[in-house]
Each structure stands twice: as structure tokens, then as C-alpha cells.
Amino acid sequence: MAHPVGVAYIFAAVIITVAVYSIGRISFAGFLRRRNHHDVSVAHVLMALAMVGMLVPRWNVITRGFWVPVFAVMALYFLVITAGVALHLGPWASDGHGQHSTYHPLLHTLMACAMLDMYWLGMPITGGLGSSMAMGHASTRAGGPGLTLLLVVLLLVAAVWLLDSISTFSPSRELALSAVGPGTTVSREVASTSDETRPSLAPRLEISCHVAMCIAMAYMLVLMV
């Protein structure tokens, strides 16, 4: 399915903004003494580079052979973390990854799988700079259109759920992170020494980045059907 060039540039601009912002989060989180999920920020940057290369093929300078193993490792990494969070194992045994956290490893497992679907199963880049984007058709794709449609639905559901959760991350809630336990509080200076008790860096903006990536991926997957 062909896609309007103007829409491609709009999505590319949004994705580039997410990538630049993610780099900023990595750079300034420590300086601002705020908690940041660096693995998520790195994942956003890598996914953005790959997606921009597919949306605007003449900007693509990295081959498909590089991205497939990258996203396979990324999917496995976030899947392991998802299992650790679910089973409360090891470094994921604390409450820092609960339902009110901005850290959603299962979502990023889904995103990495969506990127694999684009590259490995149906959206190969046929060349380097200036090449055209070869969209996979149902007859040539290993996974068929059903897999793609399932990923699209899951990504859109995730985007709606994330948008609904933004309101839970208010400034007053961030102040509440200074409480170490029931009935026990500590000063902001003491709390800031622990990564688990530091307030998150702009959680609503982080969620907005998740939403933007989900919608952009869903759009690109629809083009494959």
C-alpha cells in the first residue's frame, strides 16, 4: 500500500523529536537527580533511527542486516525483564515497577516484535540511501496479514491505555515518592540518594513518547496489510 509522502515526513519528524528527547533524558536525568529508564530511552532512539529510514528511504543509511539482530536482542531483553517483574525476581522484586510506573517492559517487547515484523517478515529495505521502501504483501510475508493486524490492534490498545494513564502522574504524586514506607518519611535530600525514591523525570512526557511510537508503528504496519 502506497503512503502519502507528506504523512511520512510528519511521522518522521515526530519520531526524530522522540529520539532527540530520549537522548536528552539520558544526558540530563543524572544532572537533575531524577529517575530515568535508560534502557527505554536507548530503545526509543534505536527504533526511531530504523523507522525514519523506512518512512523516508533516502535517509536510510543502515542496512536491514544490522537492525534484525538488534531488535531480536531488544525483544529478548525486555521479555526477560517482563518475566522478572511478573515473578518479582532479582532487581525487579521491588515495587518500583508497579502499575503506576512509567516502565512497561512488556510494551517495549511488543514494540521490538513490531520492528522485527517490519524488517524480518515483511518490510525489507532494498538498498541504501535513496532506495525505495519495499512493502511486503500477504503472499510473500512469512507471518501473513493476521500477525500484522494483531500487532496493530495491540499497539493502538496500548496507546489508548497509556493516554488514559497520564493523569495518574501528577506533581503531587511525585512528591509522595519521598515516603519510604507506611507512616515513614524522609527528607528530599536523603530520598534523592536512592534511585527507587527519586521522582521520575517528566513521566507524562515519557508516556507521550511511548504513545507516539505506538501510533507511528501502527501506521507503518497498516501499510503492510
Structural class computed from helices and strand pairing: mainly alpha
Mean pLDDT: 78
Integer count of domains = 1
Largest sheet: 2 strands, antiparallel
Low-confidence stretches: 124-140, 177-194
Percent strand equals under 5%
Query: How much helix, percentage-wise, in residues?
Result: 55-70%
Number of strands: 2
* SS element count, helices: 8
What is the general shape?
Answer: globular
What is the alpha-carbon Rg in Å? 19 Å
Neighbour order of strands in the largest sheet: 1-2
Provide the succession of SSEs: HHHHHHEEHH
Distance between the termini: 7 Å
How are the SSEs ordered, and which strands pair?
Elements lengths: L4 H24 L9 H18 L8 H24 L17 H18 L21 H22 L5 H5 L3 E3 L2 E2 L2 H4 L11 H20 L3
Antiparallel strand pairs: 1-2
Helix pairs in contact: 1-2, 1-8, 2-4, 2-8, 3-4, 4-5, 4-8, 5-8
What does the model show?
This protein has 225 residues and is an all-alpha fold. It has one domain (5-222). It has eight helices and two strands, in the order ααααααββαα. Strands 1-2 form a two-stranded antiparallel ribbon. α1 packs antiparallel against α2, α2 (38-55) packs parallel to α8 (203-222) and α5 (144-165) packs antiparallel against α8. It is globular and about 45 Å long.
Give a nutshell description of this structure.
The chain has 225 residues and is mainly α. The protein has one domain. Helix content is 60%, strand content 2%.
Quick tags:
two-stranded antiparallel sheet, 8 helices, 225 residues, mainly alpha
